[in-house]
Amino acid sequence: MLLVPKQLLRVGMTGDVPYYGGRLTPAQAYAASHPRPRPAAPAPRTRADQQRAALRHLLDTGVITPEEHERFVARVAP
Question: Is the Cβ–Cβ distance between 19 and 28 less than 8 Å?
């Protein structure tokens, strides 16, 4: 026996609104006629930018000291 909840979330069909067994709610009808714009793809980052961001995160979280951060950033390719 398969138990299916009364309200299923069907993201691909009408957006992020619940699907009620074949009937469209006003929220679903609106979501279907007003699709959300897709976010723009982020600009490609260089490996050095990614490494600097990772080092900044380590510094912000307290994993490395400011002195270590400066030393590691100096080792990252410009």
Answer: yes
Give the residue from 40, 38, 36 showing the smallest Cα distance to 16.
36
41, 52 contact by CB (below 8 A) = no
HEC states along the chain? Answer: CCCCCCCEECHHHHCCCEEECCECCHHHHHHHHCCCCCCCCCCCCCHHHHHHHHHHHHHHCCCCCHHHHHHHHHHCCC
| pTM for this predicted structure | 0.45
- In the numeric block, the tokens 């009408």 are attached to 14
**What one-letter code names the amino acid at 25?**
T
Residue-level pLDDT, tens digit, the chain, 78 residues: 455 555 554 545 555 555 556 677 788 788 888 888 888 888 878 889 999 999 999 999 999 999 999 999 999 876
